[in-house]
Amino acid sequence: MEKCLLSIDWDYFIYSPKYSCNSYLENKKSLIDLWYKRYIQARARGEDIQKAFYISPELYTFWSRIKKYFKFSKNTKVYVSDSHALSYKIAEENNCKSVYLFDYHSDLGYGGLLSLNFDVNCSNWLGKLLKDEHIKAAYIFYSPYTKEKPEDFKPMNDIYNIRYCKTYDLSKSVSAAAVHICRSGAWTPPWYDNRFIQFVKALGLPYKVVNCPERKWDTASLSLSDKINYLLA
Question: What is the distance between the alpha carbons of residues 132 and 179, in angstroms, rounded to a whole number?
């Protein structure tokens, strides 16, 4: 049986009717500073940004549904990180021949086929796995809140074995050699980090954390100096 990687982005479950987070570099500024900046700017408008982001109800039934279609064993490796780019290395090292991705984004590359010539990053890792022939197929399960469409990636779709699926498209058990759960902190608010950890633990398997720094979210202790520094972020 071919090995597969089950890759899950926390932003699959996060949505906001009002705010849309654009593409960001994955660094301290985007992981925490910009969230404080958004919070301060929203407060100046009389808004509370913490009430503008929601968690999908699907979160609470996700693992029970997944376990109907994916087989996990004591040998299944589970990784937790902030950046989704780690999925490339995980798939390669575990000799996975397919990826099942649950995500707000496809991570196929956002500059057409030319974007697959760049180094592996959080926006092209899945396209790179296909281009570099580490995997034979990619199955993408979009968040119901995504603004992306499969036709946005026609150049990749025409060349590689990419399928855009719904959970009910899964009709047989798939053996998961590895699971990667990423936080994508540039796109997901820090005040939900505790929920993220709860979600990770709910899988019920041992996991390894790789470069997923703790984010301190304490708006009550913000000083004037802090606010100025964050507004300049």
Answer: 21
Give the residue carrying structure tokens 């009550």: 220
Mean predicted confidence (pLDDT) in 156-175: 88
pLDDT tens, residue by residue, 4-45: 999 999 999 999 988 876 656 677 788 999 999 999 999 999
Sign of CA dihedral 88, 8, 63, 173: negative
Q: What is the pLDDT of residues 96-152, one digit of tens each?
A: 999 999 999 999 999 899 999 999 999 999 999 999 999 999 999 999 999 999 999
The Cα–Cα gap between 81 and 204 comes to 17
Task: Name, in order, each residue with C-beta under 8 angstroms of 35's C-beta and a sequence gap of 6 or more.
Answer: 189, 190, 217
Spatial CA neighbour of 182 closest among 80, 56, 30: 80
- The whole-angstrom separation of Cα 155 and Cα 160 is 9
Classify residue 191 as exposed, middle or buried by CB count within 10 Å of its CB (0-12, 13-18, 19+).
Answer: middle
Strands (E), 57-214: 70-71, 77-81, 98-103, 137-142, 162-164, 174-182, 208-210
Q: How many CB atoms lie within 10 A of CB 114?
A: 9
Gyration radius from the chain CA atoms: 18
